[in-house]
Amino acid sequence: MSLFSPMITDFWQATFLSGEVLCRNGKFTLAVNPGLSEDRRLMVLETADGSVMAVMTPALADRLGLHRQSGLSEPLLRGTLREAGIVLHGADYIFYFSEAAKRALGQETPAGVVRRLTAEDEAAFAGFQSSASEQDLDDAYVELDHWAVFGSLEQGRLVCAASMYPWQNARVADLGVLTLLPFRAQGHARKVVRAISRHACEQGYEPQYRCQLDNQASAALAEAAGLSLFGKWEVISPDAGE
């Protein structure tokens, strides 16, 4: 994980290791933390180097009998979860800029008509949203009132937009991006992602890009924009019963 900023590694280690560690077994670590919120009472992070960290509430660990198990491993944990009927929500890939990539980003001049959007762009943004499908809007979660919003224009029309908001009370800015269907594969999203990420870095935030594992186009965009894979993050399914 040394490829990335200490801010990133410290953030994830605090998320997963700030409670009582029940098990360290090779590259697998399991901890319990009573401070986890209800919708994140179980989380698993597999980093790009193959390390796996899991954290859950003490109540869930007691229910699963994990305090009494020795030699825990990721396969054993997942088997225990399956037997208990506990489902993890579909995993997200998480991408960040490496330290070297951030330095290159800071020296770059935006290409094309890419700029920050403001409340004065409300009409243009409304037209942009009306040209996108409901599914694309839900998946991207790009909003004009987010902490930062950037867009790419073609002949005066907004064709791609990205927005960011601070994530989990950390100096991490989670971003979403959406390009209108007729304008995809033309470089708009890459330029917008890099422009908004440069802005976040200038404000002292780490840009964060997330996408579902089966969204190959989104993962390819992250890599094209210069981000590197940090890991895969899973949380308990919203439909999972206690």
Automatic annotation (TrEMBL):
Entries under Gene3D superfamilies matching the protein: 3.40.630.30
Species in which this protein is naturally found: Chromobacterium sphagni
Alphabetized InterPro entries for the sequence: Acyl_CoA_acyltransferase, GNAT_dom
Residue intervals of the N-acetyltransferase domain: 112-242
Protein name as catalogued: GNAT family N-acetyltransferase
